[in-house]
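Write out the 3D structure for:
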Amino acid sequence: MAPVELPAAQKMTSLADFDPPKKHKRNKFALACAALASMTSILLGYDIGVMSGAILYIKKDLHISDEKEEILMGIINLYSLIGSYLAGRTSDWIGRRYTIILAAAIFFVGALLMGFSPNYAFLMFGRFVAGIGIGYALMIAPVYTAELSPTSYRGFLTSFPEVFINTGLLFGYISNFAFSKLPLWLGWRLMLGVGVVPSILIALGVLAMPESPRWLVMKGRLGEARRVLERTADSEEEARLRLADIKSAAGIPESCNDDVVQVSKQSTRKGVWKEMFITATPAVRHIVLAVVGIHFFQQAIGLDSVVLYSPTIFEKAGITSDSQKLLGTVAVGFTKTIFILVATFLLDRVGRRPLLLSSFGGIILSLFTLGTCLTVIQHSDTKVKWAVGLSIATVLSSVGTFSIGAGPIAWVYSTEILPLRLRAQGAAMGVVVNRTMSGVISMTFLSLSKAMTIGGAFFLYGSIAVIGWIFFYTFFPETQGKTLEEMEGSFGKFRAKPRNVPRAPNSDKDRDKPIQLQNMDRV
């Protein structure tokens, strides 16, 4: 007797069995929500971009030393740690959506304070407030976007925060150039104060967004979560399966179909940290290593120095005019923006791992070439035109290769691999590592350049990038096409090379089988 073919709805019991169509229209509602949430990242990008040019005029107006300049440029990254630390608890308490509004409101106050700063001390206070807002924004934008996005193009949507960081960077550079001709006391204050505009737009736009379906499930609001998923999934079937997987991850029985249920607190904040660092399973330990590692290397390779101090680098390369330096920074902003837009369309086609490794390969080549050119220029009595031209080209190539892989993938990968129960605090941990390293790099670049020459600084960054490439090749499995609830099954066993393995099996016995075969293949 021929086997009876079951209806599709009966055959598919989890998202592991769901195979979305290869060609489909992107969900416009999910796209709009991801874009609105990710706009908070404009705040960081604008601050980095505007400070790189404004510092030229702040130094002249406030008469600050190189040491104070370093502190002023980089301290906001350390201030943002406070916001990142608070954002994990805040987003679990009031929700992802209202946390985004809070981030915009705090940065609004910070931008106003910086714009009206009468002296260096007041300016530092303004950067303290703005830094807290940036910390909130950096943590919450990728978390919300990852939790809302359909599986089929989650990489595309989750890369939006990096897109808007680069957009903000470009706006900051343009603001520098636009206000550079104003009186000295007014120009840099307007450059910083204009940051209130994106804050207002973000706060208003977020009001039209729904709450994250995963946060709603965590609070027992299943009816609301169901309605959000139905609007953001590729199909009704995917929405049903996504809800079932989220309920399973949150410890809610699949048979429970009430609109509102009572959910007991599975773990306190202390319990989450304990699970990540003390009682961690091999899979969770691997995930934590990946999250910390990708954020560490994204910043330790010194690309923030290239962006923040691009006018200084152009000056060392032989460009002396302030206008030409600012035009050079605009070119940096355009390059970063163009390449991040390319990256958004490649993440779900090429995959995270190939893009990340290719990106770091390009960064390594660019940094070593830039270091060589700057060293040649420094030791030459005459202007070496080829070295000057190649220095400018490698500044652009370094930020371009960073934007096409290392920039967006750090946020995409670190957010999507964290289990639901650990996601808010785990994402906050990643932001803490990211901002700490960014602060260290940006606050030491001038001192490092004096101690070992500017060329030597880029040789050091290039060497760190080599170590980062080896780390990613060894410890990072591919996550393309997996649901957030399936991720944990991809970790726990290090693989040097990804293989095409069937998506997460339904039984633990089946789950182990392909992993064992992979390791045997390696041997």
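The radius of gyration is 24 Å.
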